[in-house]
Structures are given as C-alpha cells and as structure tokens.
Write a structure and sequence with these properties.
Elements lengths: L5 H17 L4 H34 L17
Length: 77
C-alpha cells in the first residue's frame, strides 16, 4: 500500500465497502479487496489514535493550549 493521507485512505475504504456490498466480485477479488480494506482500516485507526493523543496533550498542558510532541510506544532512542 502506497503512503496515503487519512482522507485518501478513508475514501478508498468507502469504495471497497461499496464494491463488496454490491456483490458483483469474484471470491478471489472479494478477498483481495477485503484484505486491502483491513489494512486501510488499521491505518485510519492509527491516524485517529495519533490525532486523539495530540488533542489530549494540547488540552492537558497547564490549562493552556500548547502543542507538545508525544512519543509513540517504542520510540525511545
């Protein structure tokens, strides 16, 4: 999967959902699209989690809105 934005990924996920719901795909094509959809959903969930963490950091910083970078698990250098 090429690197896409959240919005592009969500649009593609909607396209895949529509194609799967339509039911005109072969079993093999359905499985391929389902696999792609799972990967896109995981990517979108990660992006939403990152956004939520950033919002939480902004809201908790001394009752002032200050952007502070956060560390992902395993980012220790």
């Amino acid at each position: 999967m090429t690197k896409k934005s959240f919005e592009e990924s969500l649009t593609r996920l909607e396209e895949i959902t529509d194609a799967l719901e339509n039911g005109d795909l072969s079993l093999e094509d359905s499985l391929k699209k389902f696999d792609e959809g799972i990967k896109l959903a995981e990517f979108c969930n990660r992006k939403l989690d990152e956004a939520q963490k950033k919002v939480n950091i902004l809201l908790k910083k001394d009752d002032e809105l200050k952007a502070v970078p956060f560390e992902e698990p395993g980012d220790e250098n």
